[in-house]
Each structure stands twice: as C-alpha cells, then as structure tokens.
C-alpha cells in the first residue's frame, strides 16, 4: 500500500505573483521572534551541545541534550486550517484533482497553545545516535517510489539508494520508528527517579504542523501565492535531482523552521479522517485506533510543487517505510 489520492500528480503550473499576506502578531511575540532569529546560528554551523532549559518566549531556540534536535518555541495563536474553495480549485487544475483535495475542507478555525517545534527534520546523524544507544531495529526493506508499496530489501535508512550526508533528513522510517525515537528523547530528558510515563517530546499534531508550516501567512504557499518561486524555497520534483539534501539548505519560513515543505513527507500524530467535519479545534491530534492510517504532511523531493501547499494532506499505514518519509518532533512546553 503506497501513496493515496493526492500525491504523484503532475501539472502545468500557472506563473503568477502575489504578495504574502501575514496574520498580525502581537508586538511582544514579534519582538521575541526577531530576537530568536538573531540568536539562531547560520545554517551548517554547529549548535552547542550544552543542555539548556527551554525558554517559553516565542522565538527562543534550545537544545535539551547533546543528541537532541534543536527546537524553537512557537507562540500560541489561532489560524484557519484547511484550504478555501478557490485554493482547492487551483490545486485541481495544477496537477491534482477535486477528489484529491476534498479532504482539506471544511476550512475551520483552530486555537494552538504555545509549543516547541523541531527547527528541521530529524537528520541521519540524530537518528543514528538513537539507534546506537537503543539498538532499535526496523523491519527489513523500504519502498523505492511510493506509488505502490513494494519493499526493496536492499534499502534502509542507512542505505536509501541515493547518497546522503549526516545532515540529510533520515528516510525509510515508519510512524512506529518515529514514536520509538520520541520515547528515547523523553528518556534522555526525564528527571532521574521519575516514573517512565510519556514525556514532553512527541510527534506534532496535524493542526500544529499546519500552523507551523503556514508560519503566520494565509497564502497558498508560505512564501506567497505562486508555485513559480518554489525552486527558491523547497526541494521537490523539479529541483531535487531525485534525492534528499542537507537540512537548512533552503530558507527558513517566518517562524524560523526549515524544510517544512518539500524534502521529505513528515509523520504527524493524527489518525486520518476524510474531512475536517469533526476535527479538533484546540490543536490536539485526531484520535483513533493505534493502527489507523496516520497523516503525513509537507510534500517531498519526489513530488510536484502543488503539493508544497501547507494545506496538503496525505495518509499512510503506520508501518509504511519509504525513501520519501521522514519526521520532525514537537515538544509540549
């Protein structure tokens, strides 16, 4: 079982320009975001491994342990989740179909409490540290093209079939693998003597993911209305060269998050529903059975530009492993 309706379509992008419409930020939150941007190190520079306590101010960047991912605090806010009829019509004529984007409705308001989001996707190096310390082993094989789930036993997160650096996003990881990584992070930050039950690290909810990907914008893409600029902002079918690239090699969005769209599809905590008719409006994950279809978001290096919209939804079985699949973590603060 592979990708579902909505992925893998090609289109003839319409070239149009538009300014990005920003949602208003309160002055203190905006100042905190600007301060966080000044404090953040340039892409490719090493981040201090010294553990730091997270600061709750929006824009604060922190690392909890030597092998922990870099996180940034996002302010609480309210946004419109999903896509408008106009945007769905645009997607249906630029590579998708009306059926493929029907699950992006109804558009609805969601209130998001403040939380922290991984600045980038989890990298090979970060995932390797987890595997070395825990001995975690995934089932043999990984999907090669995502359109049908034919596992290639020669492929794995270590050998995805194309060259990767330690700074590339880890791929060939299932939802279960991502959850195992989250448990490891929680063990690392747990206070000595505390009982082992949950923890602050987790996968983001679908609503949190879209809130972070939109980063205060209301436009079709986070950079504006046009897909013609996608090459400058994301790795996708037309510019990725059939592989992933080191994280942070494209610009961060306005919340300081890299590769929220493109590069790899990212697992979320939610069970998939075919519409938002009964979706939570407080940022929580949509519930369901553990083996439900899990939502993944963001598009990837293999897919066309229309899927880089923050509203785009996908879903796959939790055991699905493919060269297009990765993840990033969130943290409750």
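Sequence proposed for the structure above (333 residues):
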């Amino acid at each position: 079982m592979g990708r579902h309706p909505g992925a893998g379509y090609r289109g003839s992008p319409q070239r149009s320009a538009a300014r990005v419409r920003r949602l208003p930020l309160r002055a203190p939150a905006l100042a905190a975001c600007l301060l966080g941007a000044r404090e953040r190190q340039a892409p490719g520079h090493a981040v201090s491994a010294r553990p730091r306590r997270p600061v709750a101010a929006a824009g604060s960047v922190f690392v909890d342990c030597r092998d922990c991912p870099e996180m940034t605090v996002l302010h609480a806010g309210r946004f419109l989740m999903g896509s408008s009829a106009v945007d769905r019509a645009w997607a249906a004529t630029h590579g998708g179909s009306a059926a493929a984007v029907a699950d992006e409705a109804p558009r609805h308001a969601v209130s998001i409490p403040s939380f922290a989001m991984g600045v980038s996707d989890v990298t090979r190096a970060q995932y390797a540290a987890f595997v070395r310390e825990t001995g975690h082993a995934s089932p043999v094989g990984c999907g090669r093209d995502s359109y049908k789930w034919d596992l290639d036993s020669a492929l794995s997160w270590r050998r995805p079939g194309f060259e990767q650096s330690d700074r590339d996003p880890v791929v060939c990881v299932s939802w279960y693998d991502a959850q195992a990584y989250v448990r490891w992070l929680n063990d690392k930050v747990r206070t000595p003597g505390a009982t082992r039950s949950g923890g602050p690290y987790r996968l983001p909810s679908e609503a949190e993911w879209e809130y972070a990907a939109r980063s205060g914008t209301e436009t079709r893409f986070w950079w504006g209305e046009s897909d013609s600029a996608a090459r400058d902002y994301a790795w996708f079918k037309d510019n990725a060269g059939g592989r992933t690239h080191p994280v942070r090699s494209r610009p961060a969005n306005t919340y300081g998050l890299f590769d929220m769209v493109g590069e790899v599809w990212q697992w979320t905590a939610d069970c998939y529903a075919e519409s938002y008719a009964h979706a939570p409006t407080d940022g929580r994950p949509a519930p369901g059975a553990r083996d439900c279809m899990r939502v993944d978001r963001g598009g990837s290096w293999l897919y066309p530009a229309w899927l880089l919209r923050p509203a785009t939804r996908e879903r796959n079985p939790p055991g699905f492993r493919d060269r297009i699949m990765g993840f990033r973590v969130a943290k409750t603060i």
